[in-house]
Amino acid sequence: MSKRTGAIIGAALAFFLLIASLGWWVLVGNVNGEYFTQVDNSKTSQLESKGGVIDPTGGMKIEYRLPAYNESGDEREIAFGTDRELREGAYLKLEAEPIRGVVGWSEVQYDDLPPKVQAQMR
Fold first, then answer.
1. What is the DSSP code string of the chain?
2. For residue range 56-103, what is the model confidence (pLDDT) as tens digits?
3. 73 dihedral zone (left: phi>0; alpha: psi -120 to 50; beta)
4. Residue 14: is it exposed, middle or buried by C-beta count within 10 angstroms (0-12/13-18/19+)?
């Protein structure tokens, strides 16, 4: 095998490992699926738009950083934006997608929470 062939194989292997690790991060290290949380208005910060063609805040004024639980009761801190302050103590179902983060939320009743989530929120 020539040095050039070895270099090409090495570069291809490095590229494959980079793509595989990025895929692993998207699938495992990033939020995905449904999470449940309870509104705590003391855990907010104000978002400021810097203007321009693309607004990275998405027009949202408030960012929440709250502990959230998946259906299995596993905890993770999730950040999401809203255009208004939410009702203190309300239970939310968050819909999250890889890379994009929280793409939607809706208020739910305590009885609608999965049993393992209810156990975490007592």
1. --HHHHHHHHHHHHHHHHHHHHHHIIIIIS--EEEEEE--TTSEEE-----SSS-TTTT--EEEEEEEE-TT--EEEEEEEESSPPPTT-EEEEEEETTTEEEEEEEE-GGGS-HHHHHHH-
2. 556 678 889 999 999 999 999 999 989 899 999 999 999 998 878 888
3. left
4. exposed
